Amino acid sequence: MGVGSPMSAADRAGSSDGLENLARVGLLAYGVVHLVLAWLALQLAWGGGGSSESPDQSGALATLADSPVGKPLLWVVAIGMIALAVWQLAEVLRWRSGWSASGDRRKKAVTKSVKAVVKAVVYAALAVLAIRTVTGSGGSGGQQEQQATEGVFGLPAGRWLVGLAGLVLIGVGLYYVHKGVTKRFLEQLDLSSAAPGTRRLVERVGLVGFPAKGIAFTVLGGMLVYAAVTFDPNKAAGLDGAMRTILDAPFGQFLLTLVALGIAAYGVFCLIRARYPERT
């Protein structure tokens, strides 16, 4: 009884209507952030709009903050991201029973748990960023990335840690590309009640959105690896720097446009996922 109670509580928490509805709000907010990010990337690519915001998460949140309902909207984003983080932590508890198993069951449980922890960290970081933006204490993503890299460089084996972080980001980027190409993103939705047209839309936006986000992560990871190799924290930058690196490549305008459209497609995927979340 004593052992099963925490697991039962985790199952109830992860499956509760209240948390699921908050998670839906989080997914909607996550989708909106990606749509704004795509718009900023398009502005960077074509030099229009005169926006002073960087095409990264902090720039997207700052753009939302400048809207007529900016501050209330950012609080909704923060609450939604916290709900998503709690949702993922509940998933970790749910899969915990498989850690002591053997074979494929244990491998699946550990893999699912690690993914859930990573997602929880990402959502929690976005919640903090949203709160800092609404309270006026946030900074640009590139500046934060450089400051963090400088701090890590000062640690024992800091150069290796920066390089490892870059390789992890490259791995995450390649995973997103693979997930998009193989349509594994469909596992994140329950489309049993969806119309055929919705299913086709999900497949199309996923096939475009996941690889595009993966490319952005891969470029960002490559910049961190380059910073580690050259021992220069100024070479490290956030998503803003990754976008500008793509823009500086041959045919950069068109490449960045494709990435921006892909990120917008990923945002649409998040909006659809809020309507048809997976049942776990």
TrEMBL record:
Q: Does the keyword Lipid metabolism apply?
A: no
**Which Pfam families does UniProt cross-reference here?**
DUF1206
Residue spans crossing the bilayer: 21-42, 73-95, 116-137, 157-177, 207-231, 251-272
InterPro entries, from UniProt?
DUF1206
- Lineage: superkingdom: Bacteria
Question: Keywords in UniProt for this one?
Answer: Membrane, Transmembrane, Transmembrane helix
Q: Which residues form the signal peptide?
A: none
Query: Where does the record place the DUF1206 domain?
Result: 25-91, 115-182, 208-276
Could you tell me what this protein is called?
A: DUF1206 domain-containing protein
Which organism is the protein's source? Trujillonella endophytica
